[in-house]
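Handout for the seminar on molecular recognition.
Each group receives one record of this type.
Step one: identify the two inputs.
Step two: read the structure output and locate the region that could contact 2-(butylsulfanyl)adenosine.
Step three: write two sentences on what you found, then compare them with the reference statements printed after the record.
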Amino acid sequence: MTDIDNLTVEEALTELKRISKEMAKADIAYYQNDDPYLTDAEYDALKRRNELIEAKFPELKIADGPSKRIGAAVKSEFGKVEHKIPMLSLGDIFSESELLDFTSSVNRFLGNETDNQITYSAEPKIDGLSFSARYEHGKFVKGATRGDGKTGEDITENLKVIKDLPLTLSASDVPDVLEVRGEVYMSKADFLELNAKCEAEHKKVFANPRNAAAGSLRQLDANITKERKLSLFVYTWGDVSDIVWKSQSEFLQKVRDWGFKTNPYNRICHTSTDLMNYFNYLQEERADLPYDIDGIVYKVDDLALQNRLGFLTRTPRWAIAHKFPAEQAFTKINNIRIQVGRTGALTPVADLEPINVGGVIVSHATLHNEDEIKRKDIRIGDTVVIQRAGDVIPQIVRVLTEKRPADSQEFIFPHTCPMCGAHAIREEDEAVRRCTGGLTCPAQAIERLKHFVSREAFDIEGLGAKIMEEFYNEGIIKTPVDIFTLEKRNRRLRDDLFAAIDDGSIYLESREGWGKKSVENLFNAINNRRKISLPRFIYALGIRQVGTATSLLIAKHFSSFNAFEQDMLKSDTAKLLEIDGIGEAMVKDIVEFFAEEHNQRIIQKLLEQVNVEDFVDTADYSSDLAGKTIVFTGTLEQMTRAEAKAKALSMGAKVAGSVSKNTDYVVMGADAGSKATKAQELGVTILSEAEFLNMCQ
Ligand code: IVH
């Protein structure tokens, strides 16, 4: 790209037009279709180049150029809402020196001699989408997106179903007209859960929590919004009949008092050093926060000073957004591999040249499915931009086609299973191609076995992934039943040397790396699981879509395996469909599982080996913890997380993964992180491990 200093006027004009077009296209993809194709860093770079060219050639500014535009015009399906006070955006900075420029220009503008006379409100920049909520006489009457800043989309019904938004304000000092503004977001945990669900239902997955939030909020049917878990923070205001606060921090306090959520990390700072320290601190915390943030917003706190500072064209002079460097990197795709999962799904995985992305070494990225490879035209040998958003699995953002080797070839997705050679087919409307080999496919069989012995299923220690693969490949364990007959078969081999010589098998004690003790431990581990709870047994079967939560629901509803199995063998789904949380698609998978003769045979043989306990809901609903919601955080000393959870459930309590206003207790172990902080901010009772155990007595 030509250096800006060397641009001629003509070139500058062409370049400004190009950037304007590109950004308009990117804006529509991002704001209207919730499906961006540029990364944030690429978009910021374009914006910056535009600003620099405009600064050098002010006469060339395009009337409707990117510097005058915010967001994108509203989608036509939604009603329109005119913003009485425009919803503006903020200028961006990316470095400490730019931060110093900002604080010194604020001071200069106000005629201050030194840097330390100003109070700033420093706030995490939530990576969601902005909203405005209007209250008249304490009643929520209208909700809107930002749209182009002047006109937004009417999302009143959608905002109503977000639990963080109060619908009535009862405090006596609420102004007659009050518009609060802030950010709607989806937590990382809720995003992962939603994507897992989309994947299970063969729907398109969202690229990141922001897109998921946008896609969930801008639904014409608010019922869909309601199903998705959205949250929000308030950070500013629009039209207000009587501004009863004198500073940003007073505003934040007021809205908190009125029942709105504000970010617990908002801080007051006084100097640029303070601001920089806060920026560095949050950059470290970033990965542990339950939601994505993409920088810090610094605002001059005092409203009188804000008024004196006023606005530039479209951004305030009294505030700026300091962006975190993007957690992105360039690397090369060494290979594209196809993994075959438990249910036969063929998942493409890219093996990458290992690379450090925001402190984590990344060497693989999922490519989701064949359409995704086609859409992004990803090929072996390509140089790609990869991105890690919070805890989320690394993704390939796009291919740098200009770096593509001349002899590169389009990736052909196999139509046969790479593990067993069976046909791999795609059902209509499905994104996934599946191997039709069933259990004759070694990959599926091994994955099913691994699932069967996994922690939440039979939990057999000593049968890890590697050993399971070895045992399968050597014919020692081919089905779950073989696990329970292994001891007997091994004894026969050991005691009857001739039998061993006959078919070449060796008994386990003589395997390399195994001894008497380890074999004994393995058989103990297996025998300890001959008695198994009903939910674990159902989960262990590995029925498509039936996870631990569903297994528990089924167990509670049927109480015995026999009752459940009898209905399934008759394909009688009435009782199953009564369960809240189990839908038609899942029922279909369950019935199909039982209809398969092989599965029936294995189940019958398994039942000869193991004893599935009937499900008795033994929770003590009269305990002090009954009905309470508990969150565990940090490392516990006297029990594992799983034990603690089981204990809480047995007391009739509910266990949640993140702290919210609905949390009753946070049980804090060693090295507790952001959840403990959040609990303090929300005033949730914090218990030590000992206090919790006491309450369980
Ligand atoms: S203040 C006039 N505060 O960042 C100032 N914005 O370009 C209005 N954002 O559109 C915005 N967290 O969507 C403000 N604590 C925060 C924010 C925040 C996220 C978003 C917002 C805005 C964009 C700035």
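Reference statements: The chain has 25 helices and 24 strands. The first strand starts at residue 80 and ends at 82.
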